[in-house]
Design a protein that fits this description.
This is Putative hipothetical protein. It contains 4 helices and no strands. The protein is mostly helical. The radius of gyration is 19 Å and the shape is flat.
Length: 116
């Protein structure tokens, strides 16, 4: 694209396009990869679930090696990667374990942003 101010439309199609979709098990069929593919994504909002699924799909997911500290109860009980709260606190407080947003607020804020 040009650096000219206001020139936001492209006049030609994409130069390179993949013929086949990315397969994360094409060259790596290790035990670690199989564990990552079978990870259960629980206690998260829809947006965070999509983010974690994308990371798993494109081999960007890195599992935790040691438990992390929960931001709510301060105990080392977070065993899932990219989570900030343990599953017990997420269920008890009804929050997303990844972003910490309340269950009802995430869906309502997404719909208002799409309407504008």
């Amino acid at each position: 694209m040009s650096t000219q101010p206001g020139n936001v439309s492209r006049s030609r199609p994409q130069k390179y396009q993949n013929a086949t979709a990315f397969k994360n098990t094409l060259h790596d069929t290790s035990v670690q990869t199989k564990k990552i593919l079978n990870v259960k994504i629980e206690n998260v909002c829809a947006r965070c679930k999509d983010i974690i699924e994308w990371k798993i799909k494109y081999k960007k997911y890195k599992p935790l090696t040691v438990p992390r500290k929960c931001v709510k109860c301060e105990a080392k009980t977070v065993k899932s990667a990219y989570h900030i709260a343990c599953s017990a606190c997420a269920e008890r407080l009804k929050i997303c374990a990844k972003c910490g947003a309340p269950e009802g607020s995430e869906s309502s804020s997404q719909t208002t942003a799409q309407e504008d």
